[in-house]
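Hi there,

I know you've been waiting on this one. I reran it after we fixed the sequence typo, so this is the corrected version. Both the input and the resulting structure follow.
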Amino acid sequence: MNSGPGRWLISICDDDGLRYSRELILRHADYKVVSVSSNATLEQLTSRPFDIAILCQSVEAERAERIVEILKRENAAIRVLGINSYPTRLRYAVGVEYESPGRPTALLQAVAALRGEVRRSA
């Protein structure tokens, strides 16, 4: 898969191990990734026109909602992927558009689906 324009993802996770492993999985699939904790600065969150924001289940719902507001204010076209997402009552407030379990294959399939790409199962 080619790394072309518009392939930037931001992965937001408060678990260092999950954040690092997801970054490796996404980079291995040729995505350009910025991985941050939910305490990221405004500059980190808006450093690029991200195509997709990936929210880990480790991010508190209220904080996730604020982060999504910032990302969408900077880029209304950004898509939001929740990993093992938030309970239904919070999903709409947070802005999750697509949910995925945390398994590597499921993560890559979810990112591809949000980008409108077709991926073969691994």
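Quick highlight: The longest helix spans residues 61-74.

Best,
R. S.
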